[in-house]
Structures are given as C-alpha cells and as structure tokens.
Amino acid sequence: MCSAPKQGQKLPAGVDVEKETVITGQVLGADGSPVGGAYVRLLDGTGEFTAEVVSSGTGDFRFFAAPGTWTLRALSSQGNGEATISPDGTGIFDQDVTIAS
C-alpha cells in the first residue's frame, strides 16, 4: 500500500524544539484508522497522572514534557490502548497509541 508520509502536527508559534521536549502522536484504532475524541493521559515513570488531552478529529495529540520515561494511555468508546516513550532530550518525539477493541 502506498501513501503519503505522516505529516505530524503543526506546533504553536514560538515553540523552540531545541529547548522543549514535545511528545506527539496519533490515537489509532486496531484497523489503523484515526480515533478522534479519545482521552489521552500522560503518566510519569512511576505511573502517576501528569496531564490529559482529548485527541483531535484526526486522532492527534501533543504534550510538552521533560526527558524521561512516560506512558501514554488512550481511553475511548472504541477501546483503550497504551504505549511507552522515553525522550532523551529536547526535540519532537512521536509515539502513536493503538487501541484494542
């Protein structure tokens, strides 16, 4: 299957990715389709709740965090999913979360 590469999200003006750690991704269904309206939670390395956003209509989400190990947990009416990401510095780090129905 041939498709365009993932374009990612546009960052707000003034975000300096040389000074910020940005975690972005997309919530995807088991079939690979985007899941909008999912609650995406950011949990720190000990499993403590840190932040929550709602995925866009195209399943996109974004968090500003610090380097370290983070868990992304997506909760939706279609199911739930989880992924781990470990940004090691500043920049944009992409991690999709696939939900299981």
Structural commentary:
- InterPro entries: CarboxyPept-like_regulatory, DUF1416.
- This is DUF1416 domain-containing protein.
- The protein has one domain (21-98): Carboxypeptidase-like, regulatory domain (Immunoglobulin-like, Sandwich), CATH 2.60.40.
- The protein is 0% helix and 45% strand.
- It has strands at 21-28, 39-43, 49-54, 60-65, 70-76, 79-85, 91-94, 97-98.
- Strands 1, 4, 7 and 8 form a 4-stranded mixed beta sheet that branches. Strands 3-2-5-6 form a 4-stranded antiparallel beta sheet, with no helix packed on it.
- It is globular.
- The two termini are 24 Å apart.
- The model is unreliable at 1-7 (pLDDT under 50).
Key phrases:
4-stranded mixed sheet; 101 residues; disordered N terminus; single chain; mainly beta; Immunoglobulin-like; 45% strand
SSE blueprint and pairings:
Elements: E1 21-28, E2 39-43, E3 49-54, E4 60-65, E5 70-76, E6 79-85, E7 91-94, E8 97-98
Parallel strand pairs: 1-7, 1-8
Antiparallel strand pairs: 1-4, 2-3, 2-5, 5-6
Summarize the model shown.
It comes from Williamsia herbipolensis. With 101 residues, the protein is an all-beta fold. It contains no helices and eight strands.
